[in-house]
Amino acid sequence: MTLSRKPTIVLATGGTAGHVFPADALADELSRRGCRLVLITDRRGGAVGGRLSELETHKVRAGGIAGKGIFARLTSVVEILIGIAQAYVLLGKICPDVVVGFGGYASVPTMVAATLRKVRTVIHEQNAVLGRANRLLASRVARIATSYEKVEKLPEDGPEIVVTGMPVRPSVAALCDVPYPARQAGGDIRLLVFGGSQGASVFSRVVPDVVARIAPKLPGKLRVTQQCRRDDVTPVQAEYRRLGFEAEVAAFFDDLPSRIADSHLVISRAGASTVAELTAIGRPSILVPYPHAIDDHQTSNAHAVDETGAGWLLPESAFTIDGLASRLESLLTMPRILETAAAAARNAAPPDAAVRLADVVLSLVNGNGGNGHTEARREAA
């Protein structure tokens, strides 16, 4: 497909990293192909970084309606309706060729407005369960792009579904070819623990005691890096000192992808962006799904990883000192198992997910559904 002019693509996203990171990766890919990009988000959109922070940005009203009282839901509906009107006017001025939504209620007003204006639309689903916002939109859009081969709650009679994988931010993609760290006899064994952007209190309560129990039994020096909730940092540091173990503990690591690449094993939640980064970099993991996630989507994500042999699902109910100690001791004393899981992780997700998603988006520019990747890139170059 030869593009006679610069396509205009609107990205509709906001909220959590699981929605923002794939949008950022797609923005990076589409900008290389010479597209004009516009971001429409909600009031939380000011926190975006990476390529998204460089885009022309507009904010519209939005609001979620799940898990609220009747008055709060009515207020949210009014917010969404106002946001749809704002987005409708904006799209009339922008005149996009395609609008791409990444789920979450921040995307709903823009995506609804796009369908009302009969603009071609794509939604991307990051989880192994179609999210509630994307469910509202699924019957209206031209394409649904998914991160997994199997996704629950997809419409039976809906638009074309394309498996693209989960695009990862450029800082993660740069680490995709970093080999799994070799284990030397008697050398360091590196364990990374993190619970997402908000941390996980259960990790703070359980991991220090487990580490102190198993460290003397391992065939090398155990080195632990643990990200905690801000309120947990000081107590966790104190607990490690009490147990006589030295660990690196912080509320935030701005180089987390590099730390993932440097680890032999990761313990984490099973959010979409976390799973995507673990599989893109190719590191084995023990995944502990957040039990109160909407539609229990983290359990579905963790099951998908477990089934490929790239990691192990451990429900929070089983995340006890005894249960984790037994699991860690067996894994950390058998490096071959971890190496096999690392290889499975690397093979679990397409390394070119951003390219695939960009192909889907550009195939709609002329409405032909074809693959515009090669031609568009050549022209952009």
Provide a descriptive summary of the structure in words.
- There is one protein chain.
- With 381 residues, the protein is an alpha/beta fold.
- The protein has two domains: 8-169 and 351-380, Glycogen Phosphorylase B (Rossmann fold, 3-Layer(aba) Sandwich); 189-347, Rossmann fold.
- It contains 14 helices and 13 strands.
- The relative contact order is 0.14.
Radius of gyration: 22 Å
CATH hierarchy: architecture of the largest domain: 3-Layer(aba) Sandwich
Query: Averaged pLDDT, please?
Result: 91
Which range does the strand content fall in?
Answer: 15-25%
CATH T-level fold name of the largest domain: Rossmann fold
Share of helical residues: 40-55%
Order of strands, widest sheet: 3-2-1-4-5-6-7
Number of contiguous helices: 14
Task: Give the total of domains.
Answer: 2
Q: What structural class is derived from the secondary structure elements?
A: alpha/beta
Q: Summarize the main sheet.
A: 7 strands, parallel
CATH hierarchy, class of the largest domain: Alpha Beta
Spell out the CATH superfamily of the largest domain.
Glycogen Phosphorylase B
Q: Terminal Cα separation, in Å?
A: 15 Å
The backbone outline, from C-alpha atoms, is: elongated
Q: Return residue spans where pLDDT drops below 50 for at least 5 consecutive residues.
A: 368-381
* Order of helix and strand elements from N to C terminus: EHEEHEHEHEEHEHEHEHEHEHEHHHH
- Total number of strands: 13
